[in-house]
Design goal:
Shape of chain B: globular
Helix content of chain B: 55-70%
Mean pLDDT of chain A: 78
Radius of gyration of chain A: 22 Å
Low-confidence stretches of chain A: 1-30
Shape of chain A: globular
Oligomer: heterodimer
Radius of gyration of chain B: 22 Å
Low-confidence stretches of chain B: 1-21
Largest sheet of chain A: 6 strands, mixed
Strand content of chain B: under 5%
Helix content of chain A: 40-55%
Order of helices and strands of chain A: HHEHEEHEEHHHEHEHEEH
Strand order of the largest sheet of chain A: 5-6-7-3-8-9
Structural class of chain B: mainly alpha
């Protein structure tokens, strides 16, 4: 077996990164887990964002503005054993995607400890790394190289990937001539061409037309049953209850509840209903104010 | 049964990977080398994609690679003529020997500026060594320089008395320039993530750098100016410019001595070796900087 594929760069970096925070492993080495998370925190420094300029930064230094910080995740602890399937649910901006990014090794934890054992495959977006001017086959090679798959194996898998994506003769045409559905199909086929030990899914099940959705759902179920552990971010509560044996509810970066899927989804729906109610009440109040002033 | 039965599967239980902190500069440097070596296939694909794109995008395609430096040379020759400076007949070759490597440098730096930020979604979606991005961009830039050999060959046919075996030194000089360019590319690609207006600043900085570099003139001509004679420090500073060394080297082998009288001669190897050493140190520093800020890319992009 090729080492390129077996050695997941994602898992390595997650471990290496976390070890800058904590050098020792706080669990017994015999603990048989797939994912261990202890007191994980991810902090964003709002001083730097996608709009920061030299001019602004200079102004910040001159005016001695303190750096603004924001915790996308805080105090998250979790053990995921082999064979478990975890659903991460919560409202928008709760830190669900950040959570997956940390597990995938994309994001470095600001505090705490993360250990991910095994080859990680993340479906955090479809068609990442595609080059619009390259053909389908060339993009399979490029996408595979970005994912860190061994090149010879990717070349072997090309026929299967092409067949699964159902692209027909388009496979030699540049990707820019593809419809968005075709692109999503190809992205899905590349990302799922390899059976991972640990599968991370971020709501990518809605790829392509109804026909392909059925096919991709079947493939995801196959991966879920084959993987040693699955972490899934979704808004589809049906899916959570059907395919996960555990769930956590995140809100504003904190774990609200961790437990059985039915309990957690119930609490989530309940809190969402309450939140909607509060918002309606506030809106009504605002609508009333001018009348009261009169 | 779905078609993916022959999957890549790591049979062996993945070992515990508790690697030492690895934030010392030396280990960052070692990681960077591993990044590039282990992902050389990815770099190759990225370079090939880049080449393919440039050739196919425009009507004239690859012909632009040939026309572009010639047209720019023409602009400078007309400009110098218009302001009434006396030039020799071989002034076009004099300029061209500096223009060609300079165009390579600015194209590589400009492309590298956006090499990381334009892959924002990718960086937030897949864990991969980001260092491959500026490395691939800088490497793809050499293609423009290679194409530039075509118009250079054409010019050399006009000034055929300058054709000599010294031209074989060009790859060596270009190699030194590549190391220097790579270091710059790695730096700007990372810095631009945090300061988005860096691209604008760099454009103007590069333009200033070109006019301060002995591209349209030679250091020998500079030393003739009275003001410079009285302030020799200017000449010292000017000769510390990496492109003073590079342009002089290219000119030696393509054009001959700066006064245009002598035949082409080997480059100043001591100066080149010094520049290579300095560039390697510069490269190590920028790579360490890159690796230090790399974990923050996903948060900022």
């Amino acid at each position: 077996m090729t080492t390129d594929v077996g050695q997941s760069p994602a898992a390595t970096s997650a471990t290496r990164d976390s070890s800058t925070v904590s050098q020792t492993i706080p669990v017994s080495a015999r603990d048989d887990y797939a994912i261990a998370i202890d007191d994980l925190g991810v902090r964003y420094n709002l001083r730097f964002n996608r709009k920061t300029t030299v001019r602004q930064s200079f102004a910040n230094v001159v005016l001695r503005r303190p750096p603004e910080q924001f915790w996308a995740l805080r105090n998250v602890s979790l053990r995921l054993a082999h064979g478990e399937s975890l659903a991460v649910i919560g409202p928008n901006g709760a830190g669900k995607s950040t959570f997956l990014q940390v597990l995938a090794g994309i994001m470095r934890p600001s505090e705490g400890f993360v250990d991910v054992r095994g080859q990680v495959s993340g479906l955090l977006g479809l068609g990442l790394g595609f080059d619009a001017d390259l053909s389908g086959v060339e993009n399979i090679l490029l996408g595979g190289a970005f994912l860190g798959f061994d090149d010879a194996r990717v070349r072997e898998l090309v026929p299967q990937i092409v067949e699964f994506a159902d692209l027909g003769q388009f496979i030699d045409a540049p990707i820019k001539t593809y419809s968005s559905g075709m692109r999503a199909r190809l992205g899905f086929s590349i990302a799922t061409a390899v059976d991972p030990d640990i599968l991370l899914l971020d709501e990518v099940l809605a790829a392509g037309d109804a026909n392909f959705r059925t096919k991709s759902k079947a493939r995801v179920i196959e991966l879920v049953s084959g993987a040693k552990a699955v972490v899934l971010v979704t808004h589809d509560m049906e899916w959570v209850r059907e395919y996960c044996n555990r769930a956590i509810l995140l809100e504003k970066g904190r774990v609200i509840l961790e437990g059985r899927p039915d309990e957690v989804t119930e609490l989530h729906l309940q809190r969402q209903a309450e939140e909607a109610e509060r918002r309606r009440a506030r809106a009504a109040q605002k609508g009333l104010d001018p009348l009261v002033a009169k | 049964m779905l078609p993916f039965s022959a999957m890549l599967h790591s049979e062996a239980q993945a070992p515990r990977r508790v690697v030492p902190a690895g934030s010392s500069s030396l280990s960052l440097l070692r990681q960077a080398i591993t990044d590039v070596v282990s992902r050389r296939r990815l770099i190759r694909y990225l370079v090939q994609a880049d080449m393919k794109k440039r050739g196919s995008d425009t009507f004239l395609g690859n012909l632009w690679w040939i026309l572009d430096p010639l047209l720019q040379m023409l602009v400078y020759v007309i400009f110098i003529y218009a302001i009434g400076r006396k030039t020799s007949n071989d002034y076009p070759l004099f300029i061209f020997a500096a223009l060609l490597p300079w165009k390579w440098f600015i194209a590589a730096i400009n492309d590298a500026t956006t090499s990381v930020i334009r892959q924002g979604n990718l960086i937030k979606g897949i864990a991969f060594p980001k260092l491959v991005l500026p490395v691939a961009t800088a490497t793809a830039g050499t293609v423009g320089f290679l194409w530039g050999m075509v118009p250079l060959g054409g010019l050399m046919l006009i000034y055929h008395d300058r054709i000599s075996l010294m031209l074989l030194w060009i790859p060596v000089i270009a190699g030194v320039q590549y190391v220097f360019t790579l270091a710059g590319a790695v730096f700007v690609s990372a810095a631009n993530v945090f300061f988005r207006d860096l691209g604008n600043a760099i454009t103007h900085l590069l333009r200033l750098w070109w006019f301060l570099s002995p591209g349209l003139f030679s250091l020998a001509a500079l030393s003739e100016i009275d003001f410079v004679k009285h302030h020799p420090i200017i000449l010292t500073i000017a000769s510390l410019n990496p492109f003073a060394t590079l342009f002089a080297a290219y000119r030696n082998v393509i054009y001959g001595t700066p006064d245009g009288v002598g035949k082409p001669l080997p480059p100043d190897l001591t100066a080149l070796a010094g520049l290579l050493l300095g560039s390697l140190v510069f490269l190590a520093l920028t790579v360490i900087f890159f690796k230090r800020v790399e974990p923050n890319f996903a948060k900022v992009l």
